[in-house]
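Posting this for the archive.
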Amino acid sequence: MRFERAFRPTRALGAAWQAALLAPGSLLGGGALLVACELALAGSAWTVLAGRATLGAELGAELNPELGMWLALLGSCCASLVVAPLALLARAAVLAGHARAVERVAIHGEERLADLAAARALRGRLPAVLVAGAALSVWRLLVLAPPVLLLLAGPRPALLVALALSAAALWTGLRYSLAPYAVVFEELGLRAALARSRALSAGHRLGLLRYEAALLAAAGLGLGLCCVGVLFSGALAEVARSESYLRVVRRAPWWLDGDA
């Protein structure tokens, strides 16, 4: 399938919904785990920002205000240094299994919960998934954090500069956003996966930007359901990402198309 059609948001989300109906346990369950890992990573970053202010104010009331701020920052950083690596490692392992589960459902029309443990089959390539997936998660965080902080804190010079850097990071990072899927689906090493992502995204970065924005908006709709719904909507977006990449690199008959 041509890249433009494979990464058309409406088509991808429709296919993801069709696949999720057949295999809700592996696709939605595994996707929810991926979203939970992303939220844990975002929460660890927020701990550093918010913890310094809130906890620092409490400690400053009892101790020296400046000392309280530094102690709060140190505690927040220590907590994040524990949570963030665990979240990234868990996400890499789940992504490998979840992507394989999407492949089995989309092409063969079968569900196997054991696919979620498929990270073991990657053997030496799990570090590549970890590095590429970690870079993707951190990139998303760096892109989304400045606009969110700008909305919460109002226009400030430092945040406006950060917003400009965020836009530059967004445009540059789109070239490498497909690397984790290249590792999982095409069993490439890290350098080859980065090169593959650059090759696939060449001339399509604007389309990828629209695609990611649409999936982010779709995932955000789940926040309206007592915030828990974001696990479901975010999981659907994760299924769509894997299915879109598969459409570009797999030419086999597809169950989703009624061919298998």
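Residues 216 and 237 are 8 Å apart (CA to CA). The chain has one domain: 3-257.
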